[in-house]
TrEMBL record:
Recorded family membership: Belongs to the class-V pyridoxal-phosphate-dependent aminotransferase family. NifS/IscS subfamily.
Binding site for [2Fe-2S] cluster: 327
Primary site of residence: cytoplasm
Protein name: Cysteine desulfurase IscS
UniProt source species: Sedimentibacter saalensis
Species classification: Bacteria, Bacillati, Bacillota, Tissierellia, Sedimentibacter
Pathway: Cofactor biosynthesis; iron-sulfur cluster biosynthesis
């Protein structure tokens, strides 16, 4: 009973020890304001920020001047979409995105509709993949922005980013990608992939919460986001969270250093969990793409049972996981992502996402499979829904 297994790393991660160490000195030792460059303490803070900027730029194959720090992934997404929309409204009012974006994108697009902008939400196939032909068809003369996430937070599907970048470039449209889940899990090269804007968040990769970043390609037309002082070259004002930025830089440094090893290990653990569930539990559906998926993502629907009940029983066994996504749990509507892949409401309701980290072992995976096997069989015994016919009739539990 004392077992504790955290399998919700797509919601957030433990801050790495080296990151905490790096951050600590900026609380009580180097506490100067980075804008106060006339004395040593201020310069130390400034240096920390610029080191982190270089670190992030290197990791993306970007220039240091193209990296801006923000208060997280949601802020970066807001900045990208609103900033491009308002700066380019003389050129057009049309935005293309997908049905499976994070709410930081979807709700921002909805907000912009109040100002006369129009959005096309692209469909995805059963694996959560967009169709490049449909993307091309959606492009209009007034299209000013394509915003398509790099990898999905719920089902892990990785989009063909380089091809999307090429299409955007051919049409002279700005291309933004929410890479919050992809950072550290996928090789990102903003030059090769023709990315104009890219959102990041520190807390999904072993850094602190409340800090993130945005890559803005030189020359891209985008409004400033926070008006005030001259921080972040006047584009995002406010005294920098020096300790957070330093922590983000450290997390990126570690991600770059351990990249290959990290991916190989996670993939191995992920596939063991997928295989274990598939072979031990009947009537399950793997959500997301079988191969083009994040190395830490395992999302299944367990037919005839309800995700919330699974989570409660998992918690009693010491396992933390998620149903749908962290943002949708607590609401009764099934996840917009799962519905977009074509799942019916009933099946979507029985979905659980495990997102693993390198802290777990093969034994942990096997314990999870065994625990799930028991939980699902127990819940199915109590469930009034026994087959697809029942599911269709009730269409919900
Ligand atoms: C977590 C997440 C965000 C939001 O990032 P925050 O730093 O928590 O604001 C945005 N997009 C995706 C895909 C995410 O997974």
């Amino acid at each position: 009973m004392s077992k504790k297994l955290y399998l919700d790393n797509a919601a957030t991660t433990r801050v790495k020890k080296e990151v905490v160490e790096e951050m600590r000195q900026y609380f009580d030792e180097y506490y100067g304001n980075p804008s106060s460059s006339l004395y040593e303490l201020g310069r130390k803070s400034k240096e920390a920020i610029e080191n982190a900027r270089k670190q992030v730029a290197d990791f993306l194959n970007a220039d240091e001047k193209e990296i801006y720090f923000t208060a997280g992934g949601s802020e970066s997404d807001n900045w990208a979409v609103k900033g491009v929309a308002f700066a380019n409204k003389n050129k057009g009012n049309h935005i293309i995105t997908t049905k499976i974006e994070h709410h930081a994108i979807l709700h921002t697009c909805e907000y912009l509709e109040k100002f006369g902008f129009e959005t096309t939400y692209l469909d995805v196939d059963k694996y959560g993949m967009i169709d490049l032909e449909k993307l091309k068809e959606a492009i209009r003369p007034e299209t000013i922005l394509i915003s398509i996430m790099y990898a999905n937070n719920e089902i892990g599907t990785i989009q063909p980013i380089e091809q999307i970048g090429e299409i955007a470039q051919e049409h002279g449209i700005i291309f933004h990608t929410d890479a919050v889940q992809a950072l550290g899990s996928v090789k990102i090269d903003v030059k090769k992939q023709h990315i104009d804007l890219l959102s990041m968040s520190a807390h999904k990769i072993g850094g602190p919460k409340g800090v993130g970043g945005m890559f803005i390609r030189k020359g891209v037309k985008i409004d400033n986001f926070i008006h005030g002082g001259g921080q972040e070259r006047g584009r995002r004002a406010g005294t920098e969270g020096v300790q957070n930025i330093a922590g983000f830089g450290k997390a990126v440094e570690i991600a770059e250093r351990d990249f290959d090893k990290h991916i190989a290990r996670l993939t191995e653990l992920r596939d063991r969990l997928i295989e274990g569930i598939k072979t031990n539990i009947p009537d399950v559906v793997l959500n997301g793409h079988p191969t083009m998926r994040l190395p830490n993502n395992v999302n299944f629907s367990y037919k005839y049972v309800e995700g919330e009940s699974i989570l409660l029983l998992l918690d009693m066994e010491g396992i933390s996981a998620s149903s749908g996504s962290a943002c949708t749990s607590g609401s009764l509507d099934p996840s917009h992502v799962l519905l977009a892949t074509g799942l019916d409401h009933g099946t979507a309701h029985g979905s659980i996402r495990f997102s693993i980290s390198e802290e777990i072992t093969e034994e942990d995976i096997d314990y999870t499979v065994e625990t799930m096997k028991n939980i699902i069989s127990k819940l199915r015994m109590m469930s009034p829904i026994k087959n697809d016919e029942d599911l269709k009739k009730g269409n919900s539990l």
